[in-house]
Design goal:
alpha/beta; 6-stranded parallel β-sheet; about 15% strand; globular; binds adenosine-5'-diphosphate; binds magnesium ion
Length: about 425
């Protein structure tokens, strides 16, 4: 995939209407009160929005929020699949589920952060959006309703994409800054690019520069640290990084499948029997390619999966029955920290242990600390990894923490990202 894409700086947007796809998919309080519990994603979109407004563009912003079900019929089906009985499924409940995913709270917060009014449309491409878009002036911002209220959105329906594009009138521009959604080929993330000149905003540009740069042309040695829960969810990442990294470090729950593949006993640790052969093959493949593959030499084991579990250190592959590995051990920490010390680039995906429990966060914390001390370019991808680095207080010490969980994983897997591929090449 070509990561070298045109950005907002490469097009003239002054006096034009710009359709801007943002990632405003913010977490909301579970009680339906409309309270945004973390506005990080809205803040992350501000530089591009502010730039466009300063350039004299009229900004038509849009995003999805949560997973609204766009027709009552599919709502009914989904509820039945969940085991709800027919009589309890009503149109009122469906409408309520939709009203909780309207963009009002996002518009209010965005307006607060920008310090200017945000006009909100009642629909996505309907009469209200059309009227408000037509009346929109230079320096003003309009926010459309949740793009997933339209059933054509997730189907990448060309008709819907065309309608979205036509909100910009003639001479419009499409700017994509929703990195968290670029791995999806939807109408608002990819389809519209067929109708308008399409460029990236600053957020996507930064992701492409750092992740794309590290994958395509890394400062070496390139060290990949892979952890998290399962081997099976990281197959693509391991495969791709095995082709480009100089060293691969394995930690987290997936390490036990590797240990088992080498004949070790892993007690009650996370083990994917079906992936044992694969793990064994990876070790061989790494050796053939001359890639250093490091596995834990010791591990912190617990008598249950709980924050207050009893714990002790065991040798890797020698975990007694009734015990499970929840973190890498102290010798492994030393080994891994030494391995990143002289790296040119480090790509990290997946925590080293169950960092959510303080008792088992030491491995993840030590690795984060080691990264904060290297002069290497440090790149963190994956939703939980980003959360871990944030929670442990190392966020501002990393070169780049990706804003897209699923998107960053697919990026590291070397997959084509439809929301990037559709943008104009630089
Ligand atoms: P990411 O979202 O960064 O891609 P994953 O979703 O693959 O990361 O993995 C994160 C999860 O892995 C965390 O919730 C963490 O608790 C869990 N995890 C890490 N090590 C272990 C382990 N030894 N046993 C069970 N779960 C683990
Ligand atoms: Mg995750």
């Amino acid at each position: 995939m070509n990561y070298n894409k045109k950005t907002v700086r490469d097009v003239d947007v002054s006096g034009k209407k710009v359709l801007l796809r943002c990632d405003f998919n913010v977490p909301m309080a579970k009680d339906g009160s409309g309270v945004i519990t973390d506005d990080k994603r809205i803040r992350a979109a501000l530089p591009t929005i502010q730039y466009l407004l300063d350039q004299g563009a009229a900004v038509i912003a849009c995003s999805h929020l949560g997973k609204p079900v766009s027709t009552f019929e599919s709502y009914r089906k989904k509820q039945l699949e969940k085991g709800k009985d027919e009589a309890s499924i009503t149109e009122e409940k469906w409408k309520k589920s939709l009203s909780e995913l309207r963009m009002e709270p996002v518009a209010a917060r965005l307006s607060q952060l920008l310090g200017k009014p945000v006009i909100l449309a009642d629909d996505v491409v309907g009469p209200d959006a059309q009227a408000k878009a037509a009346a929109l002036k230079s320096g003003e911002i309009l926010l459309l309703q949740n793009t997933r209220f339209e059933k054509g959105e997730t189907k990448n329906d060309p008709e819907l994409a065309g309608k979205m594009a036509s909100l910009t009138g003639s001479g419009g521009v499409y700017v994509s800054d929703a990195f968290g959604a670029v791995h999806r080929a939807h109408a608002s993330t990819a389809g519209v690019a067929a109708y308008l000149p399409a460029v990236s905003g600053f957020l996507i540009q930064k992701e492409l520069d750092f992740i794309g740069g590290a994958l395509a042309n890394p400062k070496r040695p390139l060290v990949a640290i892979l952890g998290g829960s399962k081997v099976s969810s990281k197959i693509g990442v391991i495969n791709n990084l095995l082709e480009i990294a100089d060293t691969i470090i394995i930690g987290g729950g997936m390490a036990y499948t590797f240990a088992a593949a080498q004949g070790g006993t892993v007690g009650d640790s996370l083990l994917e029997e079906d992936w044992k052969d694969y793990a064994g093959d990876m070790v061989k493949k790494a050796a053939d390619k001359g890639v250093k593959l490091l596995l834990p030499v010791d591990t912190v084991i617990a008598d249950k999966f709980a924050p207050d579990a009893q714990s002790k250190v065991a040798k890797a592959g020698q975990i007694p029955d009734g015990w499970q590995g929840l973190d890498i051990g102290p010798e492994t920490v030393e080994l891994y920290c030494a391995a990143v010390a002289d790296a040119g680039t480090v790509i990290w995906n997946g925590p080293m242990g169950v960092f959510e429990f303080e008792k088992f966060a030491a491995g993840t914390k030590a690795v984060a600390e080691a990264l904060s001390k290297t002069s290497a370019i440090t790149i963190i991808g994956g939703g939980d990894s980003a959360a871990a680095v944030q929670q442990l207080g190392y966020a501002d010490k990393m070169t780049h923490i990706s804003t897209g969980g699923g998107a960053s994983l697919e990026f590291m897997e070397g997959k084509e990202l439809p929301g990037v591929a559709c943008l104009l090449d630089a």
